[in-house]
Amino acid sequence: MPTPADAVVRSAAEAPGAGLAALYQERILDHYRRPRHKGALDRATGVHAVKNPLCGDDVTVSVLERDGVVVEARFTGVGCSIMQATASMLMDAVHGKSREEIEALVHHFDAMLAGGAADESLGALGALAGVAGFPARHKCAKLPWAALKGAIGSG
Q1: Is the pLDDT reported for residue 13 higher than 70?
Q2: Cα–Cα distance, 143 to 145 (Å, whole number)
C-alpha cells in the first residue's frame, strides 16, 4: 500500500532528475521503516512534545546538551511517514550542533519547503524537498522541528 511519502516523491519522479527523486524516496522510506534515534532519552536536559490534532501526528523530542551543544537527541511518537522520517533524519542532523547551528538548519529547511529545491546544507533532510509540492504536508515535516526547538529551549 502506498504511503504519503510515496505520493510526495512520485510527483518529483515525473520531473527531470527522476533518478534523484527515486533516491530521495528510498531515503524517506528507509527512515520511516527503520527510524534512527527513536526511543526515550533518560538523562535528557530538555524534552518537548507537540501534536497536530487535525491528523493525529504526535512527537516528543528529548535532547542532552553539554556546553551548548546537542550530544544526543531522540524522539518518540506516532504519525505519518513524513513526520516519522523527518524526526529520524533530524535527530541525526542535530548531533554535535549548537543552538545557533540548529536555528540555521531550521531556516534552511523552511526555505527548502517554500522553494522546493533540495538544500545540500541539510544533508539527508534534503530528501524531503519533494514535500514542498504538498503544502498540506508541510506541517507533518515541521512538527519534529517544533518539538526540537521546544526541547532545546526548555534546557
Answers
A1: no
A2: 5
